[in-house]
Amino acid sequence: MDGGAGDGGWSTLPADLLGEVSGRLSSDADVLHIHQVCAHWRTSTAPLAAARPWIVAGHETSRIASAIGEDYSFWLPHGGGQRIIPCSGDAPPAGLPYCCGTPRGWLALADAPRSPTRLVLWEPVSKAEIAMPPLPRAGFAPQIFLSGDPLAASASPGWMAIASQPFSVAGKWQTLFFWRPGDAAWTPQREPPMDRIDSAAFHGGFFYLTVRYWYLHAYDLRHDADAPWPPPRVRSTFVYLDADRACELSRQGRSLRAAHVVAAADGVDLLLAVLYWECRRRSVQTVAKVFRMEWAAAADLELSPVTDLGEHALLLGCGDALALSAAEFPAIRRNRVYFVEHDKAPHRHWAIAMDLEANASELIPHPQFQEDEPSEEDGKCAADHSLLPYSWFCLKQPFFKHK
């Protein structure tokens, strides 16, 4: 490469400058590319410690309702069951061993799985901490969602946290609580409790969520001087029949499994990913179809098929969904829907990658089965499967290996 930095070209750029530039990169692909330029650039910049995103998991004995547990861990979906420590040398805040959410690259941490007295948001890259008040009602630890990134200039001061607190271990009934920076306490929703949340997304000033038994709810978060507080639920619809028709489930051998709402990466479209079972050659596969949602104020829900996500992929789990570009995150593949099995049941696989173009599914093995393939007879299956997947976690910046 010639002509960028004096007579020596780009290869003569100072090492400290290269290190500073690489530290500001936002995509894993850029980090990989910078290491392919020349030997000087490789030795002057830190390599990736692990490509993003990761599966977050916990053990069955500690996963109570929506809390992942005090032994939560992060794993590469592929790669022989490699565990990731994303703290870059600094441990999370002391006294907060329970994780109860992974929103927008943050970890929501609690001091107990029942009636926690401390709730803290912690961001592993910047080490930023945001203390939140405890929930006003005794009960299980909640799952935390964020309407925006607290560190992003565009989100401050308008972001808010939403906590979904279950009433039972199974999380069958849950209540939403809303909190804004500066509030002394959480404010509960006005409406009656809802069923367990399957997915959630923020789009266009609204908080969308799907719950078990196929209801889609929308809360209006647009807050101005005259806006009501807490945010009201403004729309609800039963999506089962719409999804049934859109996926042609009248065909023999198909049945609905789940519906997840996702905000597209471009911020323009709101998507609904519908998962269903399909019988194929004496086996049952999970298949996904994606639809663009149109939900005008005075109209019924309209679903338009999306057959090509471009360079993007959707990552679905318990609660938060991600829309990431495979061009920026080489660990995932384009035009795929990734689904983490989060039903608290043991599986030999813990995620499914569904190819929208080929209409085919790939099972991603549980990490305990990616190397030695233990059998049911040797007694390892039940013990190994005590590590159960929960959702996805994606650091806001590349995870570098420290030299």
Automatic annotation (TrEMBL):
Lineage: Eukaryota, Viridiplantae, Streptophyta, Embryophyta, Tracheophyta
Gene3D superfamilies: 1.20.1280.50
Protein name, as recorded: KIB1-4 beta-propeller domain-containing protein
Species name: Oryza meridionalis
Superkingdom of the source species: Eukaryota
KIB1-4 beta-propeller domain span: 96-343
Any one Pfam family match given in the protein's UniProt record, by short name: Beta-prop_KIB1-4
